[in-house]
Every structure is written in C-alpha cells, then in structure tokens.
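Researcher: Here's a chain I'd like modeled. Treat it as a single chain, no partners, no ligands.
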Amino acid sequence: MIEQPLDTLRRPLRDLRISVTDRCNFRCVYCMPKEVFGRDHPFLPRTELLTFEELERAARLFARLGVTKIRLTGGEPLLRRDLEKLVAILAPLPGVDLTLTTNGSLLAEKAQRLRQAGLQRVSVSLDAIDDDTFMKMNDVDFPVRRVLEGIDAALAAGLTPLKVNMVVKRGLNEHSLLPMAEHFRGTGVVLRFIEYMDVGATNGWRLDQVVPAVEIIKRIEAVHPLEPLEANYRGEVAHRYRYRDGAGEIGLIASVSQPFCGACTRARLSADGQVFLCLFAAQGFDLRARLRSDVSDDALEAELAGLWRGRTDRYSEIRSAATAGLPRVEMSYIGG
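Model: Modeled as a single isolated chain. Structure tokens:
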C-alpha cells in the first residue's frame, strides 16, 4: 500500500461521475480499442446495471457527503434507455450541478428532451474536425457533421456552457489542433485539449504518444495569442486560457505531464454499482450489494465517508515502470 500525503487525504468530495451504461457506439483509441471491443463484445446484462431508483439513492447519499456536481458518463450515456427519466429524477437534488459527457452521435435528437428533463449542460468528445482523422480515432462509419449537429442542438437547447473535449495523440491527430481551435473560436464553446494517457490495462502507456500541454499551448498561441485565466473553482483539472482578441477560451488537461492527484475531488460509480476513487483504481467498493440489502441510508453514508477518507490512490503522481504493470479498471467501464 502506498501512503498518501495528508493534504491529499483531506481533499473534499465534490464531484461524482456516474456511468449509466458500459455500451458505446465508438471504439476509440482512447478507451475502447477495437481489437478488444469488437462488434460482438459481451456487455453487462441489464439486471446487473443499477436501476434508476438505485442511482437516485446513491446520488442522494453522495450529495449528503458534499458532492455538488454529478456527471453522467459511460460508455455512451445516451444509449441508456429512457435516460431523460433518470435526468428528471436527479435534477431536483439540491445544490447539485447535473451534467453529461457524450460522444455526440445521438445528441441532436435528444438535446431538447434532456434540457426539459433538467440537464444543465453537456461536454462532447470530438478528437478531430476532419472525417478521415475522426474515423481513425473512433472507428465509426458516420461523419463529423453528425457530432457538430449534436453540438448545435445542445447550444440551441441551452445546455451551456458547452465544452468539447479533444484527446490529443501524437501521430494520429496533433495536426488537428489548430483546425479544431479555429472551428470553435467565437462560438461560445470551450474547447479542451486532453493529453493522451493510458486509461486501462489494454492501453500500453508510452510517452512518445503524448503531446504535452506545453506544446499544445505553443502551437495555438503561435497563431492566436492567449492569456491565462484563474480556475473557476478549487480542484478544477483544466488550465484555462482565453484568446486575447476576445474570441473565447480553451482549456488544457495535463493528466500526464502535470498530474493533479493531490487536488482530486472526484469519485466514480460504474454502471454495475462499483465505486472507484481513481481512474486507475485496481478495485472498487461494491455499492450495488449495499443498495440491494437492508443497509440504512445513514449506515451507507458512513461507509462511503470512511471510504473517501481512507483513499490512497494517486497513480498519476507515482507512475513509474513499477506502476505501469499494475492491474487497473478500464476507462470504458467507469467513464472519464
């Protein structure tokens, strides 16, 4: 067991990511490589997924522990049947910002209903603005236009501020940095560049595949001058910059070159009810079994509080040759 610094142990729990499905209609290089997640890959039986009622109870307990932001993820969350009903159940939680991360493929048809159900905003994954690179990154048979239509629909529905997340992998899409920046400049969309990193046992992490945040900033600033912005809140993972000409802002998530374990305020709940305290955790806490037992809310809240206080995960800060081979959960299983 690796001991964690006291200041990290004292970080508050503020952010809960809930994976509502392990299914996705992308097989991207980042979390669902097609050599593993082929067309016939067996996903979870529906009976193993947490029900909407169980998800509401879990979210309510986490809110009692201080969570102020809940993000619905996957897999692809828009593939979950009747997702709008879950949004409507979670939206009334007091003091909670309810958001969703999606690949955008189904967003155009669902954005308005999600907003009406109480969803506040969305983040959309888009790794390139040209079809050829986009399809190579995500192994899909539809064009970028479909994702852009989803973004437009979300903006029209008021799901803002809208963020677009671009994972940057050397040799695949770093040439798309400037085209992506120029496409979203002046639109009100916040484009965030994310360093490529190993996100599960199937991805062999290699530094030569990473385009560091410093390099990304230099490439953008060489054409469009930038200036840094203050964080929106303590523990925000993105470094914020704005265009000096007033055309909006971008963000950098430097998970590899500048790990932020010490400021992490995030827990993750998998679709089948496992609680993970790190994207690279080796094992989770079986919340589903507790939810399906006669454990009271007070007792379960106390268990979750103890789990958070006792966490020791800080994989990105201690990453080395020794940690690279450790078992860890797949990102496709617990979301980003």
